[in-house]
UniProtKB/TrEMBL annotation:
InterPro entries: LipA_acyltrans
Transmembrane segments: 12-35
Organism for this UniProt entry: Sinobacterium caligoides
GO terms for MF: acyltransferase activity
GO BP term, pick one: glycolipid biosynthetic process
Name of the protein in question: KDO2-lipid IV(A) lauroyltransferase
Amino acid sequence: MAVLLVKLLGRLPLSVLYSIVAPTISFLLFTIAGYRKKTIRDNLAKAMPDLSDQQRAVIAKDYRKHVGQLVVEILHTRYHSEAEVKQRVTFRNPELIEQHWQQGSKVIIMALHQSNWEWLLHAVAVQFGHKLEVVYKPLHNKGFDQYFKESRERFGCVPIPHKKVLEAVGHREDQYFFGILSDQSPLKKSPKVWAGMMGIETAFPIGVEVIAKKGQATVVFCGMHKVKRGHYECWFEEIATPPYAKGDHSILEGYADCCTRAITAQPETWLWSNQRWRFDRSEDRYQLKPEHDI
């Protein structure tokens, strides 16, 4: 029943979704349910200590509004056209990707949970016309998981479950186009790298470094900012190119720096409700194994 409701809502025009459904979702989620109110407040205080309480409150308010709009945009993702994708998501410097691809490089695009990452995946696939393999975490509800998986498969995207990424991509010799969002907190008992993001020592999953080094792939950051409601601009920044040195963590360190600049420039569109800093380095008991230090 819930999946059917999502499908029906997704078919509505975006104008209706924005004017009626988005503010309703924001009100129910944050005002009535109080969804992660403390997490949002604590994250903002930790990441932006130089701002006043009032300034952080404005960001939190704008964030709540953005989430309502983001949800309806994601619902609509299943039904938007290629022309609509091109109209709503533009790229500032696509030639950076084309240059590496034409040189025969394997390309890994690292993005973050800012603006509308679901539209970003489709926009990248449409812009470049290459099969884009993307990491996703399967949902517990099989109906919703199938629905969103099918949404992501449009326009040449190939979703790969996060536990099968190394198997699917890590040992390949052929050229590939791979996308991953790495700004969420890893599990405490998992391999990770610590790097500075928003002035905070932050844990990142090490997987993307292992994949890039095994495949000698070029790693590029893709940022995305909201221009106005329903319209976004993306840009690319080169993070690292092979050959890579053993024990070097410049990929994730560079990614953390890119994330910091993207979030600082437009904080209200980043995912503040995520428990990003749920533990610090003093609580990390995981020791990297030899296979991670390549």
